[in-house]
Here is the input.
Amino acid sequence: MTVKSNVNEEQVRTVIESWAKAVRDCNMDGILANHTSDILMYDVVAPFQSEGIAAYRKTWELFFKYSPGGEGSFNLTDLKITASDTVAFAHATLKVFEEKVRLTLGLIKANGQWLIAHEHHSGLDEQ
Here is the structure.
């Protein structure tokens, strides 16, 4: 691993951790920051597919009807990141209160800024 890839991975980690904190804080602007306008998300609850930032925003509006936010409401564990100079992938276990799901993110670097372009949540069977 090169020093440059370490820098990219740390930048991506900062974006992802800031996003997760924004969810815990119920901060919609923070959630939407660092996303592409054409974000594609696959979720474990309806709507199962959201395309574009407006549709993505609506999924969070629904989420906050059921989640008050706060500690324990949206925690990442086992975050792993692979990043080049322009593209990064990350995966983690996401704990939403007592439920665990898999999280996979695809990011692109545009104008020097890492942006989440793809987000996929899937059920986690802990057998």
User: Anything to note?
Assistant: The two ends are 34 Å apart (CA to CA). The mean pLDDT is 92.
